[in-house]
Amino acid sequence: MTDERIIGRDSELSYLENLWNQKGLVTCCIWGRRRVGKTSLLREFGKGKRTLFLQGIRGSYYENLSSLSLDISEFLGKDVPQAPDLSHLMKTVEDICRKEHTLIVFDELPYLLESAPQASSVIQKSLDKGLKGLDCMFVVCGSSISIMRRETENANKPLYGRFENRKQIKPLPIEICRELHPNMDTETSLRWYCTVGGIPYYHLNTDGKNYQQLIEEKFFDEDSSWRGEAASIILQEFNGNTNYTGAVKCIADGTVRQSEIADKLKIDRAACKRMLDDLEFVGMVERRIPMGGSPKKPVYSIKDPFISFSFNVISNNIKMIENSSSKVTAYGFLKNDIDSQVGHVFEKLCGDWLDSKYTVVERGQWWGRIDDADTDIDIVAKVSDEHRLIRTILGECKFSRKPMGFNAYNTLVSRAKKAGFTENTIFMLFSALGFEEELSEYSEENGIVLIDGRILIGEEKPPEIF
Question: What is the DSSP track for 221-271?
């Protein structure tokens, strides 16, 4: 993040402070998606502390040594010779830590490992010998989730067992992101969150702009860095392996089963399974789970909203965007695609909201054929009350341009009955723009739970359901 505001990270800062207050050598591993705000969080945590911030860069081993030596020079307030190798540099770090309680942050460790695979062994030796017993906190951080976890969780790696304290920095919920654009109206807030997700960076400098303006500026402008960012994030995570971007493109194009993706990519199914597991592991894709006796098998969807929008809308229409006479014209052509994408992610937003507000034991979807037509139920969730009584929530999610009426409710009731959901059920309707008055009145008398946009963004409290 380039903004000075740190919002929604109180628990992470508290976690780090508790570690800082411990005596002796304390280690911590921080990871999270690019742009999620890891560096800003650590710089905020380092304020008022004796902090040496070491930054790995994408470059050669020599360039990294030069950059890291400059970081040490800045900390000491004087020029120091460039370290001849990483071992000498870590010796200097050890000398710094001997003086008093010190915070060492090694940011973007994966960048250093690209040019210096031996870095893990050098750091391991320093932790086991040079830094052992010193009063310091040593933090490693990186945007490559797979590398950070592999280096610290794999028993065959040098850093295994050296970082028992671990923290994933996750995307922020919508009610927290709202603080970055407090003047944005409810509908625009929901649309934008369904477009870019909970990555703080994507919410900066958005206040005072409507949704169309944001899309035109951030995605349609040919000079925007956002154009190729989604593919870049995937390629960086998986060391440039284009099969990973290919798998995401397959899902965006509607090829959502493992066997079909393998066929499209011309790879064997075992390799495809490992690749999809990797993508799921880092939070880029997810498996949709069929529930309630659905006859269908799991399918894959793109989980990260920014990546999903970039592939489903921008990549699939890039020639049209580039050839349009104006950005306004391009938006007009893509409006239906954009609305469809927002509606799709809105279902995920509603499901995540449900998880965060109630004790959800299991959640998925139902899909199959009813009356000779493919159909689905957006949310099927088993929810427990304080006495462990389980009830099934059946949810319908709509991001239309008008309040939801009885048609959506009647459709949900009909599908639920034909799919076999007849006992201990709660009907829950989600609508970004609220509900028609008749439906609102009927719901109060018949125990139907209505969730509108104001509740989803945190402006109103969630209703009691038991």
Answer: -TT-TTTTHHHHHHHHHTTT-HHHHHHHHHHHTT--SHHHHHHHHT--HHH
